[in-house]
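Appendix B. One record, verbatim.
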Amino acid sequence: MRVLVVEDDAMLGDGVRRGLRQLGHAVDWVRDGAEADLALAGEPYDVVLLDLGLPGKGGLDVLRDLRRRGRGVPVVIITAQDAVSQRVAGLDAGADDYLVKPFDLDELAARVRAVQRRSSGRAEPLVEHGPLTLNPASHEVFLAGAPVALSAREFALLQALLEHPGRPISRARLEERLYGWEEQVASNAVEVHVHALRRKLGAEWIKTLRGVGYMVPRRM
């Protein structure tokens, strides 16, 4: 998924970015509220990790403005401010979750998965479609009970397509899900990953709609 980290602490921001990228997420990192506004105005993120104590425009103001614009992207507040009143203010401003620093990367990743799962209207931790089962927590995929070894980006692409079977996703949107700002994207990157998934799962799992994009059939 595509994640925006809004954090002014260089060590923490870089650590979160590196850790989430190792889990296969595309991650962008900004360090103040003004940069966060610009990023959120131009990119379709799946989850935002938002510090409150930002220089210039504070995190709560970023969150309130985001919700006033009708943007429903899930937001997890990450902050050292742990008073109950501050947690209540963050949640009432539109946050979906609240995590106090210092935190464990595994817990952060689990909370990211949870809010993204809820935003997709899915309660179950596993993604199941016909004989295919995908586990976002362990990054495992099983086809008719047999494990299928996928790279991090193959997994991310398959997960994106499985969120809405029968609904095509454009190549540009898939690139946004797979790559952050600082990563080089080859012109045929998505096609390469799609080819690898078809080879491992079977050609029938991913359909190409010329001029539109790719999709997993509604029924398998």
